[in-house]
Amino acid sequence: MNVANYIAITFPSCSANEGFARAAAAAFAAQLDPTLEELGDIKTAVSEAVTNAIVHAYPDTIGKIALKAKILEGDVLELTVRDWGRGIADVEKAREPLFTTGGEERSGMGFTIMESFMDTLRVTSKEGQGTKVVMRRRIAKRGRR
Amino acid sequence: MDIRTKLEEQTLTIQLCGELDHHGAKGLMERMDALMERDLPRKTILDLEQLRFMDSSGIAVILRAKRRMEALGGNLVVVNIPKQAARVLDTAGLGRYVKLI
Lengths: 145, 101
Hints:
A: Heat Shock Protein 90, five-stranded antiparallel sheet, B: alpha/beta, Transcription Regulator spoIIAA, 6 strands, globular
């Protein structure tokens, strides 16, 4: 698939960067002229993916997180959130609604929300090596809506 | 994240302003716990009108506030839910557990 445009950002896994990451993704996605609802969905999905990396990949340390956003042909936005942290032992279990190892301030709904708000979600992980979350969402052109 | 509060006839209103994510969730939970323990309300109204963004961290905040209110023998109501926050709460099916208006 041809890439029309992309950005790549890396940042440390400080929780203060959750807001920065979703704002950066939304600013990049704006060139596809999304609706407010689509922008809200994109921000929410990125917030969930980045928070997962901060809470689960690097629970006792600060590590590196990479956010990539691409515009693919057909007005498809692809978002990738990558970490090099602890990894997920059982990805299928982690994707189940309400499953969490994150303590009382987490709800276990992160992957469910990413899945519901985006068209596709792919999660690959290796224990001790990190996790990659790739999400895609097609942004319909206004005239076609 | 800022909050504004009002206590009237044993009803505590907590208005959330700004963006609610994991970064602010823990501090917000602690502030809300302290308010409920201080004021001992019969009812708490969580007003989301000024909330610009909420992710799944908000679900945990609301469920904790509901448990706290139940422990006090009172109840929790969530009002003025913006569209983006409503999408998150609907996806979690939170309406089955908490009164959302």
